[in-house]
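Thread title: Can someone regenerate the structure for this chain?

I was given the following input by a collaborator and told the matching structure tokens would be attached. They weren't. Posting the sequence so someone can regenerate them.
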Amino acid sequence: MKKLLLCAFALTTGYIYAQKNEAAFTITGKIEQIKSGTIYLNIYADGTTIKDSSAIIDGNYSFKGVTARVSNAMLDIKDEKQDYLRFYIEAADMNITGAGYPLKEWVITGSAVNDDDKKLSAFLKPFREEEEKYYAAYTEASKNKNQRVLDSLDALEETMMLRKRSLIKTFVMDHPASVRSAMAITENYGYYAEADEVAPLYYGLKTTVQNSPNGEEVKKMLDIYKSVSIGQTAPDITQTDTSGKKLSLSSLRGKYVLVDFWASWCGPAGKRIPTL
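Best answer:
Regenerated them for you:
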């Protein structure tokens, strides 16, 4: 239920953030080995993609615009669809330079969020390497239809999630003034989490980060977890029963009720639904 509610939360936050004061950003850069062509900027914010492009003239390019929050972004060059640089856009004067390909090796300066993202990536590197081995093993077991190995990997999944969250908690507590910390909370606690796990992380953030759009997103997530925590009245849900009649959860008050959610995007769930 929590995951479903958080999905609804994510769909409704975009309009709220769009109303906030937007601030300007600039991106300038020089590419040593690519003197001409076109470079593209994609910004992924609030469920939409903002696209822009810039001519590369004697290796130089530039972008300017406005943003209401720190968001994911990507730079890529025409006809090089498999080569790109992922980074974070923020209200700052950023400089992104590089020798040429691959773009992921370009250097970003002038951005505190991207600086902190590098710190987080370095901190998580040992775990990432272990995670890659886990997914490689899962892919191999799936390919060979080895159910015994798949079951053992499924059992390990929660342990790995908890270990990662422990690392994220350490990073957040060590970087309370970073918007990247707020983003890390949303990324890693947006599902299967409890209010008492998220609360100390959110309240440990500096006030400026709490009041940022990314910090407010954490607060809204925390409020949802609190509303569905043990002991709270469940949100009222109305659905059709097997006879097609509307049935509200509140109409069953005083009875023992098991609510089982199935995700339409989940393959195994989709296969089971016709048998229910």
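Strands lie at 23-30, 36-45, 48-57, 60-67, 71-77, 84-89, 93-97, 107-109, 238-240, 246-248.
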